[in-house]
Specification:
- This is Diadenylate cyclase.
- Belongs to the adenylate cyclase family. DacA/CdaA subfamily.
- Keywords: ATP-binding, Cell membrane, Membrane, Nucleotide-binding, Nucleotidyltransferase, Transferase, Transmembrane, Transmembrane helix.
- A hairpin with a 2-residue loop joins β1 and β2.
- The chain contains 11 helices and 9 strands.
- It has 291 residues and is α+β, with helices and mostly antiparallel strands.
- Bound molecules: adenosine-5'-triphosphate.
Length: 291
């Protein structure tokens, strides 16, 4: 049984409409995921070729459609290889927002009797160390993870599994320490590892941010962690979450954001898109140059 709607001279079934709506939603999500990266241009290229292929097929242009058909066949495999990091991110995104993910409202409702794991720990060492590091313009990169130990990234550095302390953090990031290059991973009140290599974001990042910030943003895109960055150049503190950033934060803001993140409150809203941040900065500069 099919329900048909008459739109102009077209007969569109309800199923077709749902199909179109779902594909549009999917394309929009893919666009959002790739926005600002080089991959968006490749994606739009693929999409244009696919649309031409559909048109050629509908017009029954056999030679062209067989050539484009061959290309589409290989294209799917090529797309999987080219977009491997984006596909990974997309699956992670689905995993994070799926019904069974730990942050999900439905899971809380369905398993209301199950107490949420307490991920809080004493964050004073992080705040106090950040104050000292910022005060002495010592660069630092700290990944705070509430749900996993981030084993894959921890193993790229040196495993410590040490009790979190202000003195230890300051020693690690001391310019003369053999552990200062790279990031520390903090989980469950412990410094799991130091000298870790993080994935660098491929998106365009405001010019003032160098590799340390790019790595912090990249890590927050790929995982559910909160990343704290102390700039070596300016001593300013930034935080990255979900590929978004909060720059030049006060220590009170750092404390609140960290506490809320560990208490499983939604902190995503506080962070700014990189584009949004850049626009705000430009507007501020224009205002100051006028006055
Ligand atoms: N992929 C990475 N993973 C972990 N740490 C990294 C990575 N890339 C760079 N870093 C760290 O960042 C340092 C280089 O920082 P760089 O000066 O380029 O960054 P920045 O964002 O301009 O920071 P700053 O404001 O502190 O100068 C490196 O010495 C290293 O410790």
């Amino acid at each position: 049984m099919t329900f048909l709607l008459k739109i102009g001279f077209l007969d569109v079934s309800i199923v077709n409409m749902i199909d179109i709506a779902l594909v549009s939603m999917l394309l929009y999500q893919v666009y959002k995921l790739l926005k600002g990266s080089v991959a968006i241009k490749i994606f739009l290229g693929f999409l244009s070729i696919y649309l031409i292929y559909l048109l050629v097929l509908a017009l029954r242009m056999e030679l062209l459609s067989s050539i484009l058909g061959q290309f589409m066949g290989v294209g799917v495999l090529a797309a999987i290889i080219i977009f491997a990091p984006e596909i990974r991110k997309f699956l992670l995104l689905i995993g994070r927002s799926s019904l069974l993910s730990s942050d999900n409202m439905w899971r809380d409702i369905l398993f209301f009797w199950k107490k949420k794991d307490d991920t809080s720990f004493n964050i004073n060492p992080i705040i106090e160390a950040s104050k000292t590091l910022a005060g002495s313009n010592t660069g630092a990169l700290m990944v705070i993870s509430k749900s996993t130990e981030l084993k894959f990234y921890a193993e790229s550095g040196d495993i410590l599994d040490a009790e979190l302390s202000k003195r230890l953090l300051i020693s690690i990031f001391n310019k003369y320490s053999p552990l200062h290059d790279g990031a520390v991973i903090i989980h469950n009140g412990k410094i799991k590892a130091a000298r870790c290599i993080l994935p660098v974001t491929e998106r365009e990042v405001p010019a003032q941010f160098g590799l340390r910030h790019r790595a912090g943003i990249g890590m927050s895109e790929t995982t559910d962690s909160l990343v704290l960055i102390v700039s070596e150049e300016t001593g300013q503190i930034s935080m990255a979450k979900n590929g978004k950033i909060l720059h030049n934060m006060s220590f009170q803001e750092v404390r609140e954001t960290l506490n809320d993140y560990l208490a499983n409150h939604d902190v995503n809203e506080r962070f700014e898109d990189l584009e949004e941040y850049e626009m705000k900065k430009r507007r501020k500069m224009a205002m100051t140059s006028k006055s």
